[in-house]
Amino acid sequence: MSASPVARQAVAQAVPQNIPRRVTINSPAELPNDYSTTPGGTLFSTTPGGTRIIYERTFLMQMRNSPLAKTPPKNLPVIPGVTAKDTEVVHRENGTIVEEPEKPEATDMDQFEMDL
């Protein structure tokens, strides 16, 4: 099967891609500290399918100040001291505050009587 004239032209004019440089590493000290950044601050990664994702530093800095970045995620669980301040947790059921019954005060009576 032959390719269409447009496909042949695209193949003939394909831009040659640079072959990645291979570096031999002899010790763990030669490994980079951060595998997915460049000196300019650009982050890059790949998906399991091989798609390259590149995040430039200027774009990330603009998105840091966006209103969306400043809002908490939906359905965030209430974890005292982590996602909420260390205050009394208000238990809600169906959007209303559930009133808890008062706990009886502890008395100083012994639980068991002992005869000596």
Automatic annotation (TrEMBL):
UniProt GO cellular component terms: cytoplasm
Residue ranges, annotated region (Disordered): 23-48, 93-116
Gene Ontology MF terms in the entry: eukaryotic initiation factor 4E binding
Source superkingdom: Eukaryota
Biased composition (Polar residues): 34-48
Chain intervals with Basic and acidic residues compositional bias: 93-106
The keyword Glycoprotein is annotated on this UniProt entry: no
Keyword line: Protein synthesis inhibitor, Translation regulation
Residue ranges, compositional bias (Acidic residues): 107-116
Listed InterPro entries: EIF4EBP
Gene Ontology BP, a term: negative regulation of translational initiation
UniProt cross-references to Pfam families, sorted A to Z: eIF_4EBP
PANTHER family per the UniProt record, alphabetical: EUKARYOTIC TRANSLATION INITIATION FACTOR 4E-BINDING PROTEIN
Family, per entry: Belongs to the eIF4E-binding protein family.
Name recorded for this polypeptide: Eukaryotic translation initiation factor 4E-binding protein 1
Organism lineage string: Eukaryota, Metazoa, Ecdysozoa, Arthropoda, Crustacea
